[in-house]
């Protein structure tokens, strides 16, 4: 970075003390404009694009049906809660969102949190927590916090994603084995205890249905595409989602062979052939006041999931989503959906990828996906009565496996110790304790690691100066130091070290390579200036530019250091003091 002037560091303008505060605030943190991507897509929409969106949306709607039911059941809710969420939130997120192809709906990442809220606070407070999360998401988008989600370290994201995947798989063992368990605990140790104590009640018929469904899904997702490469006739068959094939075959087996396994009909009485009406929740104000932390967890997780999903979709279609608009749409969906019997919603990677691969061109496909689900509910709801929960458990087992990034555990040896510790700590805390605790500890560990790394990159080098033979045995009359990196609260010891060894007459600080100064760094420079005045040592500053210059103005440092003691570069400062460098 070059100096702005050749001989002086005189600021081009002083901070105006009477500047309008509202103007400054608006320029620092502007409000996002609410403009859904759909409005831009419709400007160039055509009949050809509509038919592509119609086909893609119908395909995604069929894929979303078993997932929506499975996510709701695993969360401790009725299957219609997942379907209502997929319909209402899917429609709102596509219509109001900032992505061209993202599909919104219930997600596996919420299972652990929703189940914990239900067990601890009840259904009414889950509605309140979800609506609060919706408000938070909308405000995050409104105040342009969408890009800040990317600042969450990847080690934290991978750690809790893998942890959630383990918990999802663990929660499905009950239905996969057909265990006789009425209520599953929400904590890790409690789940292990109840599974161990009821393992003898395993239903072999349920195990056979679950294992068969899982094998069908694996074959459809892995084996069939390979066979389709050699036999083109199988390509049309590969288009059908493997989860749907497994669900249909399992349902036919249960109804045709009269198997004694738990089904949606036997546990929930079936699925109503309509959407739930608007209902104000029955909740307690005494417990509702404790919803802030769960709501914050839902909002953060929803924001992370949706924006990561949107970034994956961007890479597939060579487009760029609007993260703030996406968060506002997520907020509206999560505020509205729970009052119609729904659960938390976010962007979903599996359904979004299916949407892209099916040829979607605009948010219309996501709206068609929601309407397809609505049509299925209105027409074919009675057919869901014989759907075995063991098959849904197998589907979620496969979702959990695909959700986790298991190779990252193998690749840990290639990373530094702080990265390994952060990822493993978040993973362990997510599985054993709580997702909120895991994210908090992970972010805290990541912040400490970042502070340490940045402070280690900030350093000070003493500049060797020519001294006369008469001065060699005395205190140096002039000392010069070059500072590098960021002068922040984690690196103020650099200034303190210089302050403890002041020269006899003048101290020169070269700040040309300082890229950032925070309030703690500015305070350390102010203390150094006052100490120099007390000891009658002349303080000379040089190389102040950009943010360090702005901080020096706002902190009052430039008022204590006269303009005659401020220079553009180190040679100019040493020449004015009559000192010469050796290096």
How many helices does DSSP assign? 27
| Rg on CA atoms, Å | 31 Å
The largest sheet has its strands arranged as 3-4-5-6-7
Q: Which class of secondary structure composition applies to the elements?
A: alpha/beta
Report the mean per-residue pLDDT as an integer: 85
- The poorly predicted ranges are 1-27
Largest sheet: 5 strands, mixed
Distance between the termini: 21 Å
Strand content: 5-15%
Overall shape: it is elongated
Q: How many extended strands? A: 7
- The share of residues in helices is 55-70%
Number of domains: 2
What does this structure look like?
The protein is elongated and about 100 Å long. It starts with 20 loop residues before the first helix and ends in a 6-residue tail after the last helix. The strands form 2 sheets. Strands 3-4-5-6-7 form a 5-stranded mixed sheet. A two-stranded antiparallel sheet has the order 1-2. Helix 6 packs antiparallel against helix 16 (323-336) and helix 7 packs antiparallel against helix 22. Helix 23 (493-499) links the parallel strand 4 (478-487) and strand 5. Residues 1-27 have low confidence and may be disordered. It folds into 2 domains: 46-446, no CATH class; 459-577, STAS domain (Transcription Regulator spoIIAA), CATH 3.30.750. It has 27 helices and 7 strands. It has helices at 21-28, 37-43, 47-74, 79-96, 111-121, 123-142, 154-171, 173-177, 188-198, 204-230, 235-238, 242-257, 264-268, 285-288, 292-317, 323-336, 349-357, 364-380, 389-403, 407-410, 417-432, 435-457, 493-499, 519-534, 546-555, 557-560, 570-577, and strands spanning 104-105, 346-347, 459-463, 478-487, 506-517, 538-542, 566-567. It is α/β, with parallel strands linked by helices.
């Amino acid at each position: 970075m070059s100096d702005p002037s050749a001989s002086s560091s005189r600021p081009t303008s002083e901070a105006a003390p009477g500047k309008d505060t509202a103007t400054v605030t608006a320029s620092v943190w502007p409000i996002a404009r609410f403009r859904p991507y759909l409005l831009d897509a419709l400007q160039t929409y055509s009949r050809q694009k509509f038919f592509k969106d119609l086909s893609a949306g119908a395909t995604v709607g069929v894929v979303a049906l078993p997932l929506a039911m499975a996510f709701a059941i695993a969360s401790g809710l009725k299957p219609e809660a997942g379907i209502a969420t997929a319909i209402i939130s899917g429609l709102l997120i596509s219509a109001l969102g900032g992505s061209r192809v993202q599909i919104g709906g219930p997600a596996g990442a919420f299972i652990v949190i929703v189940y914990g809220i239900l067990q601890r606070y009840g259904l009414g407070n889950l509605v309140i927590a979800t609506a609060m999360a919706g408000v938070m998401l909308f405000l995050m988008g409104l105040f342009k916090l969408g890009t800040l989600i990317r600042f969450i370290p990847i080690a934290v994201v991978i750690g809790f994603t893998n942890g959630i995947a383990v918990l999802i798989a663990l929660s499905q063992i009950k239905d996969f084995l057909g265990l006789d368990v009425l209520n599953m605990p929400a904590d890790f140790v409690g789940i292990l205890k109840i599974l161990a104590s009821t393992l003898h009640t395993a239903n072999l018929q349920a195990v056979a249905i679950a294992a068969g469904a899982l094998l069908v899904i694996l074959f459809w997702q892995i084996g069939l595409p390979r066979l389709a490469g050699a036999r083109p006739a199988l390509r049309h068959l590969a288009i059908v989602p493997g989860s749907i094939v497994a669900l249909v075959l399992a349902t036919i087996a249960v109804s045709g062979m009269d198997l004694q396994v738990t089904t949606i009909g036997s546990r929930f009485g079936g699925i109503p052939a309509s959407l739930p009406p608007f209902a104000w929740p029955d909740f307690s104000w005494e417990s509702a006041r404790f919803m802030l932390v769960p709501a914050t967890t839902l909002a953060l997780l929803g924001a992370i999931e949706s924006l990561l999903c949107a970034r994956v979709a961007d890479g597939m279609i060579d487009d760029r989503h609007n993260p703030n608009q996406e968060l506002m749409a997520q907020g509206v969906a999560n505020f509205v959906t729970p009052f119609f019997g729904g659960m938390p919603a976010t962007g979903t990677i599996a359904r979004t990828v299916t949407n892209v691969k099916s040829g979607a061109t605009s948010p219309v496909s996501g709206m068609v996906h929601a309407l397809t689900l609505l049509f299925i509910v209105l027409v074919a709801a009675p057919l869901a009565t014989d759907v075995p929960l063991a098959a849904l458990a197998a589907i979620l087992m496969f979702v959990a496996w695909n959700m986790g990034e298991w190779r990252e555990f193998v690749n840990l040896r290639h990373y530094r110790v702080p990265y390994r510790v952060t990822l493993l700590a978040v993973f362990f805390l997510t599985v054993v304790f709580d997702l909120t605790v895991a994210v908090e500890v992970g972010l805290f560990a990541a912040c400490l690691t970042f502070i340490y790394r940045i402070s280690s990159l900030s350093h000070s080098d003493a500049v060797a100066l020519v001294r006369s033979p008469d001065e060699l045995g005395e205190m140096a009359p002039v000392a010069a130091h070059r500072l590098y990196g960021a002068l922040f609260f984690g690196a103020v010891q650099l200034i303190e070290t210089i302050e403890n060894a002041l020269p006899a007459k003048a101290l020169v600080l070269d700040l040309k390579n300082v890229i950032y100064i925070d309030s703690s760094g500015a305070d350390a420079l102010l203390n150094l200036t006052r100490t120099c005045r007390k000891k009658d040592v002349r303080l000379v500053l040089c190389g102040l530019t950009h943010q360090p210059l702005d901080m020096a103005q706002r902190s009052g440092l430039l008022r204590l250091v006269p303009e005659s003691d401020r220079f553009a570069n180190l040679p100019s400062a040493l020449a004015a003091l009559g000192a010469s460098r050796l290096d």
